[in-house]
Amino acid sequence: MTRTAPLLVVMGVSGSGKSTVGAALAQRLGVPFADADDLHPAANIAKMASGQPLDDDDRYPWLETIGAWLADRDASGGVISCSALKVAYRDQLRRHAPRVRFIHLSGSRDVIARRQAGRLGHFMPASLLDSQFAVIEPLGPEEDGVVIDVDQSVDAIVQHYVDQASAPQSHSARRNQQ
User: How many CA atoms lie within 13 A of 3 on its CB side?
Assistant: First the structure.
C-alpha cells in the first residue's frame, strides 16, 4: 500500500505558532512548507499593519492563492500555515484540495498574547488578537483535523501530531482529537 504524503494546514490565531510549528512539521515529514503570511497581497499587509482586521472580501483572493498552493501539492504533500479562522475559509481551501487536514493550534488568550509579545517585526499588531479570537470557529465534527494545545514546546506539538497521525485508527476516528 502506498502512503500518500500529508497535505496540512496549520491554523490558529495570530501568535499561536503556526509558522514555527508548520516549518518544523514539514521538515519532520519531509514535505515543502509555505507561510501563508508571505502570500498576502500588499493591501492586506498594509491594512493589518495599520491595526485594521481583514474582512471576508480581503481574505477571499488570499485564500484562493493558498488553495492553489495546496492543489499544486496534492500528490506530493505539503504544509502551509494559515489562520483559517472560519469554517467558510476552510471550506474554500477544501474546494481546492479536498484531502487537506487541519491542525488547529489552540490556546488561551493569555498564552497566545504572551507568545505574540515575543515576536519582533511582524506586520500583525498584537492589538488585532482580540478580533481573531472573536471570529475563530473551532473545527467542526465533519472537518478532518486535530486540535493541539500550544502551551508546550514546538517539538512536543510536532510529536503529538506525528503520534496521532500514525495511530492505527480509522480516518473518521482521528477527526478533532485533542
Answer: 5
Mean local confidence (pLDDT), 106-122: 73
Q: What ranges make up the beta strands (E) of the chain?
A: 7-11, 33-35, 78-81, 101-106, 145-149
For residue 54, which phi and psi values (nearest 5 degrees)? Answer: -75, 150
Whether 108 is covered by a domain: the verdict is yes
Q: Compute the distance between CA of residue 95 and CA of residue 90 in angstroms, rounded to an integer.
A: 9
d(C-alpha 160, C-alpha 56), whole Å = 32
- What is the number of structural domains in the chain? 1
Assess if residue 4 is contained within a domain.
no
Enclosing domain of residue 56 = 17-174
What are 44-73's pLDDT values in tens digits? 888 888 888 888 999 999 999 999 999 999
Residues 93-102 have pLDDT tens digits of: 999 999 999 9
Q: How far apart are CA 28 and CA 44, in angstroms?
A: 31
